[in-house]
Amino acid sequence: MRIGEMSRRSGVPASALRYWEQIGLFPRVTRVSGRREYGDEAFQRVGLLLLARACGFTLDETRRLFAPALDGRRPSPRWEMLAEIKLAEIARVERLLTRMRTALETVRSCRCVDLDACGALALRELPAPPSPEHARSPRPRPRRAGRRGAGAVSARSSRP
Description:
By secondary structure, the protein is mostly helical. 52% of the residues lie in helices and 4% in strands. It has two domains: 1-58, Multidrug-efflux Transporter Regulator, Chain: A, Domain 2 (Orthogonal Bundle); 74-129. Strands 1-2 form a two-stranded antiparallel sheet. A hairpin with a 2-residue loop joins strand 1 (30-32) and strand 2. The longest helix is centred in the middle third of the chain and has 34 residues, at 75-108. 7% of the residues are buried.
C-alpha cells in the first residue's frame, strides 16, 4: 500500500510516517518508481508506535523500545522497563495535580481581605510540598579559576 492509503488506514498523517522513517522509528520502506510501498509489517509497526504514544512515551523513549541493538530479544522486558519508568512519572504528576487541586480549591473559597492573609491561610491549610529526593543544604559554589570577572583576562587576549 502507498503512503496515502497507510495514512488513511492508520489515521497517521503521511508527514508523520515520513518523519518516523527519517528518525529510525520506522524501517526503511521499499520504493517502487520512487514511491513508498508499505507491507503489512509496516502497518503493524504503526500500531506499535500508536500504542507507545497512547502510553505517553516520548519519541526518544519509543526509540529506546525499538533500538536496533535490542533486535532479536523479546520485547516484553523492554516494555516492562519503560512502563515502570512511565508509571513512576505518572504517579509524580498525579501527586502534583492533587496539590494543585487542593491549592485551587483553597483559593476559590478564599474570603481573605488581603494577600498576606491568603498567604497565612495557605501555610496552614495546604499540604507541604514534597521534599526533594536528593536534598542538600545549600552551599555557596566556589569560584573556579578562569571565570571571567573583574580584572579577568580572557584566554584569547593571552594568545600571540
